[in-house]
From TrEMBL:
It comes from Eucalyptus globulus (Tasmanian blue gum). The keyword DNA-binding does not apply. Residues 8-100 form the Disease resistance N-terminal domain. Keywords: ATP-binding, Coiled coil, Nucleotide-binding, Plant defense, Repeat, Signal. Residues 69-103 form a coiled coil. This is Disease resistance RPP13-like protein 1. GO terms for molecular function: ATP binding. Residues 176-338 form the NB-ARC domain. Residues 1-16 form the signal peptide. PANTHER family: DISEASE RESISTANCE RPP13-LIKE PROTEIN 1, PLANT BROAD-SPECTRUM MILDEW RESISTANCE PROTEIN RPW8. Gene3D superfamilies: 1.20.5.4130, P-loop containing nucleotide triphosphate hydrolases.
Length: 365
């Protein structure tokens, strides 16, 4: 997923959260159908499901899909502005209600939106719903697929990850500290031989970067006797993954050997040792493949860990572990990240002419 679509996916998630939180209050608004917010919510979910496929087709040069994505982005921004207006109106109504009550006046129930703006709010929302419906129709005409990416194209576009950390890392201090404790804290280990730590979040949110930080942490390096990093990506090939892990553990090539021999060797290499394996960018939803991969790891010492990074909560459910979801970065961290990639610095102090547009774009991240 390209940077633009990462931001769009993030924005859609923010809009979904806002629609869910304001739904019950909105129903109280006289003259406005309570189904409208739910319509927007469902259509946003439908759009979000095909963003990966749309991005894949856009990268292949499909101009119609690019135009569709541009329209989705414009509509998302307009909906965000409208929901912000709603929040302001709600705050004003609450303030007026509290002021009236404090003055001893008869307390009356205020609706979610102030009355003078009701017609304007209703009209804007109806227009947005109409635009959503048109975008959904065009989605069908473009044959965009749900939760499907052209995997061969995806593999070529996204470079395989490595264990080497990013030169700059913004935010995630709390997440890093918490997961580090999960990895190395003796109290967390208990009597469990092997624990899975899934880091979950949308594409581009920083799952791999966080895993790299953890993998290279000095405390982690000294705590685990053996470590291995594998970029799994879209093809979950048990043979290839096992081969990569074994090569990392033993530093010996095992080309030409079958899965049975590879897993026996891996089991022997890990027997009685505390290890950490990172499986980056996992998409596999096949329980049989997952359990086949894990067989050699049962021989490790107590406290051994496997970190997986994934966008897919179904992947997490297969592992049987509790997920560690990553939320969006703070605005300040988004500004620093944007400045780094655009200007090779961490702020706009020497580029004040770009500061306003930089901050505006960061809010859309």
């Amino acid at each position: 997923m390209a940077i633009g679509e990462i931001f769009l996916s993030s924005l859609i998630q923010v809009l979904l959260d806002k629609l869910v939180s304001m739904g019950l209050d909105y129903v109280q608004r006289e003259g406005v159908s309570p189904t409208l917010p739910r319509k927007c919510e469902k259509m946003l979910e439908t759009i979000n499901e095909v963003l990966d496929d749309a991005e894949d087709k856009q990268l292949d040069g499909d101009r119609l899909v690019k135009r569709w994505l541009d329209n989705v982005r414009d509509l998302a921004y307009d909906l965000e502005d409208l929901l912000d207006e709603f929040e302001i109106e709600a705050a004003q109504a609450k303030s007026e209600a509290e002021s009236s009550t404090s003055k001893g006046q008869l307390k009356r129930k205020f609706p979610f939106f102030s009355q003078p703006c009701s017609l304007a709010s209703k009209t804007k929302l109806l227009e947005i719903v109409d635009r959503f419906e048109e975008i959904i129709k065009r989605k069908s005409l473009l044959s965009l697929r749900k939760n499907v990416v052209d995997r061969s194209h995806y593999t070529n576009e996204r470079l395989p990850s490595t264990s080497l950390p990013e030169s700059q890392f913004f935010g995630r201090e709390k997440e890093e500290e918490h997961i580090l404790e999960l990895l190395t804290g003796e109290a967390e280990n208990g009597n469990t031989t092997l624990s899975i730590v899934p880091i979950v979040g949308m594409g581009g949110i920083g799952k791999t970067a966080l895993a790299q930080r953890l993998y290279n942490d000095a405390k982690v390096s000294s705590y685990f006797e053996k470590r291995a990093w594998v970029c799994v990506s879209d093809v979950f090939n048990v043979l290839d993954i096992t081969k990569t892990i074994l090569r990392s553990i033993t530093e010996v090539s095992n080309e030409g050997e079958d899965l049975n021999r590879l897993q026996v060797k891996l089991k022997d290499s890990l027997s009685g040792k505390k290890f950490l394996v990172v499986l980056d960018d996992v998409w596999n939803e096949n329980y049989g493949q997952w359990t086949a991969l894990l067989k050699p790891f049962e021989a490790g010492a107590k406290g051994s860990k496997i970190i997986i990074t994934t966008r897919n909560y179904t992947v997490v459910s297969i592992t049987g572990a509790s997920s560690y979801p990553l939320k969006e970065l703070s605005l300040n961290n988004c500004i620093s990240l944007l400045a780094l990639h655009a200007l090779k610095t961490t702020n706009f102090e020497r580029h004040l002419d770009l500061e306003t547009i930089g901050k505006k774009n960061s809010r859309k991240m």
